[in-house]
Each structure stands twice: as C-alpha cells, then as structure tokens.
Amino acid sequence: MRIAVVTHEASLTGAPLIAARIVGDLRKQGHDVTVVARRRGPLLRRFGQDATCRIEPLARLRDRLWQHPTTRWLATLLETLTAFVSIAVARPDILYLNSTASAAYLRPALWLRRHCVLHVHEDYDTAQMFLRACRAEALIRRAVIVACVPSIRRDVSRLSGVPVESVLLVEYITDPSDVEKSAVDAERPDLDDGEIVIGACATVEYRKGTDLWLQAVTRIREQRPERPIRFIWVGAVRDESLIRGFEECFVGPRSNPFGFMRRFDVLTVPSRSEAGPLVVLEAMSLGVPVVAFDVGSARDHVGATGRVVEPEDVNGLAAAVTELIDDEKLRARLGDQARERSRELHVRSDFAGGLSRALADAVSGRVR
Question: Is the pLDDT score of 11 beyond 60?
C-alpha cells in the first residue's frame, strides 16, 4: 500500500522520533512510504533513508498568520489547502497522521476519500487546542484513532466521545540495545572528578517545566552547598527568558544526547504535561535512575526503579533528587533495576503489530 506519514516537525524530539520508527516499520512490512514533514529539522535525513520526503510549503507564512487573531482564519484556510495539495501529490491509500498537530489533514483526507489513522501523542488540553485550531473536533471520529499510552487513550476517548476500548493502544518502547550502542561513541560532558550530575533532556519551554526545574535546582543547591553537583539540561532553547541567570546549566541540543545521558547520575523529568516521554525509557536503558513528575506514562514506566512525585511539586522533586544525591548505593541499585525493567518492557511491546492492526482497520473502513 501507499502510505503517507505526516509529521508535524522533523526535530529530534518524542513524536517525530516515533514517526521515524513508524516509517521504518512500515517499510519493513513492504509498504510504499512517503513522509510529509510540516516543518524542517535534523530528522529529515533519517526519514530520507526509508522513504520519499516532502516538505510542506509556506510554513513560515502560516506561522506569521497564526500570530495575529485577525489573520488566523487565513492561516486555517492555507493549512487546509496545503494539506489538500500534499495529499494529491503523494496519492496515498492511507494517511498516517502522527499527532493532532497534523489534524489539518483530516478534512482534505475525507474530501479525497482517503483512509486515515490519527496517532495521538498529546494530552487532553493540547489535543483539544490543535483540533479546535483546524476545526476538526468532529472529524476525529472518522479516523482510526491510535493512542501512545493508556493515559492518552483515556484523554482522547473523553475528547472524541469514542469509547476507550475503541481507541487502539500502540505503545512505543525504546530498544535498550539501540540506545546503548548510540551512547558508546557519543559526546560526553567535561566534568571534574567526583561531580554528581543531575540532568534533564528536553526542549526548553514552559510545557517541559524548565522554570520548575530551576526552582528545584535552587533548593538543592541551598540544601547541599558543600556537594559537587553539576546540573545539565540538554535540548534546544525555545524560550530564552526561562533560563536567565542559569545559562551555565544549558548546553543546547545534541544530535546524539546519549553520551550526556549516560553520564547523568539522575535524570529529572519536570514536565507539566507529557504523553509517554521517551527520555524516561532511554535513561532507564542506560541504567540511570529517574525522578519525574507524575504525568503521562512516567509512573507506569518508572515503576519502583526511580521516584515519581506529584505534578509541579517542586519541593517533592528536590527532595527526591536530594535523596539520590546522598545515597550512592541507592542510585546504583535503582539504576540496575531501571536497566532491567526497560528490557522487560521492550520484550513485551508489539509496536509493529499495533501499526498493522491500525492499517487493517483503516482499509476495512472500521473505526474501532
């Protein structure tokens, strides 16, 4: 079959990385795959190894139109027309929309009588925002809906009115062996002897909780002024105002962050909202204990191999990290347990099988 996978961007972040895995698995299954990237990014090279790539035109113009309330209607119209053209050029049998940020393709897909799969990675509020922006709230029920983790499955059921059991759950679990191989020759941070590294790995923005992380950093430094602790955040800075006064903690993006991650003594995940943060599974694969807010699938993945605290509880985050700073043996034990748990989760996963079920439902016209 001819399948067009639409990714909202080509950055080295969660949903686009999963899109790359989707493309690779579909190619292995013998499908003819085209990738439509709505934004440029470093992941385009990887997409190009497995599929024909097309870049959606006029992205900057649409962004400028979205910034002004008086021209947003024009941005919506332009997105719909662009999606229509992209589908007409790719001529797919099935559109695989990887995230609700690509929901602008739902209406043109129905006009052109194309089967559609919508893979949701966003929580309720974020998904609702994207669907409302392109006026596609009612159209979601015309697609085969896929959720990336159980919490998102519940959210998308509530948002769409589709019963939970009718939303297909297809969880992506990182392959620990791939992560370990990638970490071998990757760049590592330059550290002094004995330094304890508390890390984070995400885009610097409000949703990722950068401000909450820095509040926790301040508390930890106040509580343990004598300890040689290095705080490192790996990721692109989208909001410079969030890091003012703490610039030394932020090292920018890395095409391969696993060298840094492997050197972390603790990985922190301070996000306000998440679906299934891949960084949790990646750190666990490298034997790094995780301290995370209880968002998305964090608790399900971490289990007893780290610490999960209430969302936005800065004091709880700082206390959990401090506990691991003070107890080297506990860090080592949790790290070993995390590595083993990541392997068990991967063995139990069936991502490729889930993709096949979604495509079969789409072709048969069966909305689950």
Answer: yes
Write out the H or E segment, with its range, that includes residue 336: helix 328-348
DSSP letter at 195? -
Whether residue 147 is predicted with pLDDT greater than 80 in this model: the reply is yes
The full DSSP string for 163-185 is -GGGSEE------HHHHHHHHHS
Q: How far apart are CA 97 and CA 258, in angstroms?
A: 28
**By the 8 A CB rule, do 38 and 128 touch?**
no
68 Cα distance to chain centroid: 28
Residues 330 and 254: their CA atoms lie apart, in Å, by 29
Is 97 within 8 Å of 118 (Cβ atoms)?
A: yes
- Identity (one letter) of the amino acid at 319? A
- Structure tokens given for 230: 């290095």
**Closest by alpha carbon to 13, among 242, 276, 232?**
276
Measured in degrees and rounded to the nearest 5, phi and psi for residue 197 equal -105, 120
Instruction: With a cut of 60, say whether residue 173 has pLDDT above it.
Output: yes
b/e for 115-127, b at 16 or more Cβ within 10 A?
Answer: bbbbbbbbbbebb
Rg value, the chain, Cα: 21
Q: What pLDDT does residue 276 have?
A: 79
- pLDDT band with cut points at 50, 70 and 90 for residue 116: very high
Q: Which residues pair with 291 in a beta bridge?
A: 268, 307
* 139/105 Cα distance (integer angstroms): 10
Residues 182, 209, 156, 136, Cα dihedral to 10°: -100
Question: What is the H or E stretch that residue 95 is in?
Answer: strand 94-98
Among 144, 43, 155, 45, residue whose Cα is nearest residue 95:
144
Contacts of residue 308, defined as CB under 8 A and 6 or more positions apart, other chains included, come to 291, 292, 293, 294, 298, 299, 302
What residues form DSSP beta bridges with 147? 120, 169
- 3-class secondary structure per residue, 29-63: CCCEEEEEECCCCCCHHHHHHHCEEEECCCHHHHH
